[in-house]
Structures are given as C-alpha cells and as structure tokens.
Give the backbone structure.
Amino acid sequence: MNSRSDEILRFPSLTLRRFATEVFRRSGVEDYDAEQAADVLCTADEWGIRSHGLARLRSYHDMFVNNRINAKAHPRIIKDRPSLMLVDGDNGLGLAVGAFATRLAIERAKLMGTAWVSVVNSNHFGIAGYYAMQGLADDLIGVAMTNTPALVAPTGGVGRRLGTNPLAAAFPTAYEPRILIDMATSAISLGSVENARREGTQLPTLSIVNSKGEPSTDPKDLFEGGALLPLGGVRNSGGHKGYCLAALVDLLCGAFPGAAWGPFVPPFLVDAVDSERVVGQGVGHLFGFISIGAFEDPAVVRLRMDDWIQTMRASQTAEGYDQVMIPGDPELHASADSAEHGVPLELSVHNELLALSEKLGIVYG
Amino acid sequence: MNSRSDEILRFPSLTLRRFATEVFRRSGVEDYDAEQAADVLCTADEWGIRSHGLARLRSYHDMFVNNRINAKAHPRIIKDRPSLMLVDGDNGLGLAVGAFATRLAIERAKLMGTAWVSVVNSNHFGIAGYYAMQGLADDLIGVAMTNTPALVAPTGGVGRRLGTNPLAAAFPTAYEPRILIDMATSAISLGSVENARREGTQLPTLSIVNSKGEPSTDPKDLFEGGALLPLGGVRNSGGHKGYCLAALVDLLCGAFPGAAWGPFVPPFLVDAVDSERVVGQGVGHLFGFISIGAFEDPAVVRLRMDDWIQTMRASQTAEGYDQVMIPGDPELHASADSAEHGVPLELSVHNELLALSEKLGIVYG
C-alpha cells in the first residue's frame, strides 16, 4: 500500500481481492461465489468505476447480516429452451448469480450460434461490462444488461419511474484491445451527482430535473424529490431516445421474464422500505452471447474489429482530444494505471474496509 | 384524395400502396417483393416518418434504372446455425431483403426461444420498427437494426465516421397498443436538419458540429463539411454514450457479419462516388426475435406489458405534457390520423409521384 494523495490510497490488486473474498466468505457465501463476487467488485475499482467497487462491500455485508440477500443461494435453471434459458437467482448475490448465468449463456452460445439467459430474483450485479467480456476468449460477442431501482423520469413525467438501467457489450479483437461498451441509459450517473453535491459544483445542463420536473443544474435537487433525466435530456434534445433505451432494458430484464420492473425494482439498501406494490421477483438481468465463428474463421472477424478501431482512431481529432475515443478506452487506461500504481481507493472507503476488517477479524492491507 | 393545406395532401392508404407496388413492379421487382416493399414505405408515411416513406420511391426507381440495386435479387441463407443465420441480400432491395430475413428469424425463434439473422450485401431497408413489429402476432419481442451511410462524428473526432444507425424493438401487449421503440442513435435526424435549413430555423444545441468539429446550431454547417452529433451531444452531456450505441449497431450489423461498416457503408444515391476503400459487402442488418411464451403463458406476459404501460402512464406529468409518453405513441397517433384523414404527402413528393406516374404510365391518385 502506498499513499499518493490525502484522498486516494493505492493497494495491490491481490490484497483487495483476498480481503473482499474473505468478507464474502465470512458473510456466509460459499468459496467459489465469494471469489467470483470479489473479482467483479475489484475489477470495477481497477476500471475506475469506484461507485461499483469496494465502496459497496460494506453494503453487501450488511445486506447478508440483515437477511436481505440469501448467502446460501443456489441459482437454478427453471426454463430451458434451445437458445433461451430462465434462471431463478434464489435472491442470491447478483455478483455470483450474474456469473452463473453468464457461464450458461456462453456454453450454449458456442453450440447454437447465439444464446440468451434471462435472470429473475437476483440483486445488484455490479458492472455490466464484466459479464459482457466473459466470452471474449471463446470468440463471443457479449451483451449484458440489468434493471436497477428507479431514479430516472420518463419523457413527459416528473417522478422516478425507471432505473439507470445499464447496457454493456464487448467485442473480440486480434491485436487491438477489446471493444467494451458499458453505459448507463441515464444522462448522468447517481455517483456523478453525489460528487457534485459534495464538491459544490453544478451539473451539466439537462442531466436532472427537480421535484416539479423542471431541468436543474443543482445537484441538491436530485435528493429533494428530483430525478435523473434519461440520456439526451429532455425531448427537444433527444431525451425520449434515452427513455426508450431505459424502457428497453427494463422490459427485457423485468417485465418479460417476470422480475420486478420500473418503480418496483427493489433498492440496494439494508433499511429499504418496500414499494407500495410488490411486482415480480427481484432484480432482472439479461445476458447474450453471439459466436463470431458462426459464419467464418473467427480470426478474420477479429482482424475486422481491429480495422474498425484503427479506422475510427485515424479520424481527425476535435479540439481538446489527443485521439478519437474507442468504446472501452477509459476502462483500459484506468486498468493500466491500477496495474502500475495500485488500485485506487478513496480514504472513506479505506476506512470502511478497516472497520469491516476489525469487526470480522480479517487481515486487510 | 383531399387537400388539407397548401403543402400537405391526403391519400387513401390503398391508393398509395397500389401505386408504389406498381412502380416497384415496373422497375423489375417480382410481385411479392414489390408489395412487400410498398408496404414498408407506405407504413412510414402512415407513421408520420415522411423521410422514410414515398419521398424515397423515386430514388429507389432510379437506383434500379441505374443498376445500383439488383431488382431480380434472390436473397439466400449462406450460413445456418441453430439460432443464428447469415443471409446474403444479393444486392437486392433492402425493403424486401429485410422482410425475408425477418420471416426466417421469426420462424426459427418460435422453435428455439430466440433466433437472430444477420444480413450482408443489402441496401437501405426503410423504417427499422416495421421489422421489429412483424413478430407481435406470434408472441415475439422483435429487435431490428441496420447500419447506414456515415453522418455522425465519433467522440473526440471531427468527420463523419458512423451512420445514424437506428435501433428498433417491439413488445407484444394485451389490451394496450404494442410498445414500439424506433430510434436513430444520432442526436437528431438528417431530415430534421434539412427541414431547419429549408425553414431558416436554428437547431437544438448539441445536435451537429461544423467542419472544424465545433458544436453549431446552424443547419447549413452540416452541409458544409459538418457532422451530426451522437445522441447525448458532446462528451460532457453524454455524447460518448450515443457514440457507443452507434458503434454497437455498426459492429453488430457490419464488422461482425462482413457487411460494409463505418465510413465505408455505401450511400443511398444514384450518382454516389465510391468511398476511398471498399470494405465488406453492402449495408448490414440484424434482426432478432424472443418468444414471450418461452417461460410461461404468453397471455400473462402480455398483461404484464399492459401493467408496465399503465404504470408509466399514471406518473405525474411534467409541464407541457398531457400524459407521460409511451414508446411508440407518436407512430400510433400518426397512424390514427392517417386512417381518419388519409395518408399525408408533401406537395413536392406528390409532384414527384405524378412525374413517375407519367413516365411509367401508371394510374396514380
């Protein structure tokens, strides 16, 4: 561990993985799932997506302690069609349930050309891109999505009706780094609004509305009954398209397979009050994989993906950019930085982990 | 036919369908495909998407006359995996090739739970939502996408590198109208910019950039070397997510199956100059269908979709809205209006059709 600033501490990846694995184990999770869950969380920190990393470990632990997540869950296939399966997550850890469903979809896609797995009765699964990337070594394009607790206003509406409902996809390449799309369908993330409130800065225009449904740049308005706007903002700026995307993810992950949906998706909070209506079973996910070897030699397709990247990269750059971005660049740069300098943790997260380490008697750091 | 204003004329749907079918027939297209193609174009006008309707009939005819599209095309399956097929469109009419591939995907999805069909060597297929809706009667969720000629700048770049790459999805319902998502992944459509130029109005902020890559609200800038921005605008307002979506569609429709991609997608123009490099075969599409009866009684899933719609609709409305929008509302309202008052055609389109009718000796109106 070496400290580079007052606020960010750096740790070797292995230290954090071991610690997180042990916390999950002591929370009652079986060995394999505990390692799996730790891998998803630590990968988020390595990618620079701190809101989805070890900052959530304490919440996961509390959810187990309060029996809101089933530590001994055994997810199982409850419907099996040739290229479409339904998994019941048994109210288990989303990080483990997601990985289980991903493995099923990957094995089936290799046989069928493409295969998709719906999941109901699950919980928060962390970073969607993690799952989409699991098929890369097997020559598979991966798609992953999940619905999440409602924070986003529909077009024409005031309240929170849809989650930030992320959508991820990963594409295999030859010599270039993989292409990775991992995006919330809201204009801005909850984490960014929280940061702005803490730092006293204004938000970009058209990222949130206040409790009356009026666009606002004051982050406080979100926490006083406001809502996030969908990607694109309001209708005039294309916000109806972001709303369509959030709806697409919610319908595919929730209303189709029978998970909760819209305002009824359960929040990721120990002391959550149940919504006025209970609809469907838990959080829903959808995973899909497509074989790039289905039509021709996968090596040829991988080279075409490289060509695509190089063509975009060769475009003339806009003011303020060194090069045209390729989807997945930010995660790539953060991973390289984490590998060189250690995985960054905020001091507040470090202190939470220290407290957990004392409570559970686990060596940390 | 009855004229309601100086600019918009109204026609019975059947009149337009008969005329368009006959134009395709006289262009050399076989009967079944001619009727199919006319149906896609006329549906666009009925839905109020005039840029994709009969306004393009003249261009299609010219493309046949100039042998840029193969009127006698026979699309065929060239790779057949259990749940993934590849169709070669034989450089045929996208409107007919798309319908062929859609039928294949629907029949296979009923057997497999889900099935997907990639298409290469095709052309402009009209409105994506048309294809996504074809599985509704068979209890199928439908997905349709296509890449299109480059108009959109990548995040960090100046030039046109990706198409407006539309994405569509349709969901079956019980008593409520179907849910229909049909959206370009650009911030604004080319048609909207053309309209603004004609009418001398400014564009919403963050919808286009000029030839230097600077955001502009002057529609003329697009036609002087500028580009459309992706959904979300610039990076600070979420434009990298719209870029990711455009990339997703391009990679799935183009680089994966071996169609043209990115800046190499052939333009829909009779006198188009070939791009500096020829890459892949024609325009690429992807169609996918998912059986809502795969896991339970489809009637139950349809009722859940109704519940989803009613829940969104019951949300408190924002200033200026009568009700919260549901994806597919605009197309629904336009269809009802077309059914009541006749299908709207702009006078300029009407005049083009008149000229075609004289040239080909086909009765019109």
Residues 94-112 of chain B form the longest helix (19 residues). The mean pLDDT of chain B is 94. Chain B touches chain A through 91 residues (CB under 8 Å). The first strand of chain B starts at residue 2 and ends at 3.
